[in-house]
Amino acid sequence: MAAMNPPAPPAQATAPGDLQAEDRTGRPVGATSQDPAPASAPAGTPARQGRGPRRPGIWRGAVLALAGVYFLGPLLASFVFTVHVPGQGITFEAYSELLSADGFTESLLLSLGLAAATIALSLLLAVPALVAVRIGSPRLRPVVEVMCMLPLVVPPIALVTGISTVLRWGPEHLSRTPLYQTFIAVQNEKFPVVLVLAYTVLALPFVYRSLDAGMRAVDVPTLVEAARSCGASWPYVVLRVLLPNLRASLAGAAFLTLALVLGEFTIASLLGFQPFAVWIVSISGAQARMSVAVSILSLLITWLLLIALSRAGTTPSTAATAPATTSRKES
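Structure (tokenized):
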């Protein structure tokens, strides 16, 4: 009788849960680093080589070179005009005579004073108004925006016509009232307050746009509620909580206002005052080289002031970073 083979053990069914587990890379759990990794691409497919950083193209350099020539070319030509005199060669008399020129220092200081007063008055009007609208009455925001944007619609010649009409009407009809001295005081030649008021109106659109963009980036209601819940007063909230967070926006508003005041000519000229821009035009007929030299100098002064304002808006304050540093050390 033939010997019968022993029956084979029954095959065990593999359930889905009994499959060998795999890690995130696709290798079975327990596999060593020597085990081959599962192929992620079909055989014969060449591996992609890493691409290096893209180098700037030739067109970018050409555009930057053209922009530099466009902006610096006229300045260089103006500088050559001021230092080169036909028949005499190179001379710097136009620059050496600036400090001794009649009206140079007075007009420059007057323009800087007007710019500082305009910046202070514009921020004093715009910051509380925008904070109140943002916190208490959001529905009034379109009304405030329209009011602040109106100076862009009214041309400066129309504005100065209205101002001059009011200045003539006031002394004639209010000569027997205390307001007569007010009309005289705002037209003082040493520091014309009427120019500060006019420049504030012209700067409102730029100040509003800068501050509105800054307040959109900051959660003003949450900051105010947190400060008020801690017992802070409203002046403290505005000066120590909101203004440090709006530092870049405030610097941008001051930046634009300073540029506007230093370059404004129409209103000051028609009202009979002589800030720096009007003084440059007044000497351009008699001393052409000196007027161009003063224009170059005014550009340099304006650029330095604007760079200082921009750095003031981007440099973090130590008061704002001190609490954060302390909390990190404590943690």
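The first strand starts at residue 84 and ends at 85. Residues 104-135 form the longest helix (32 residues).
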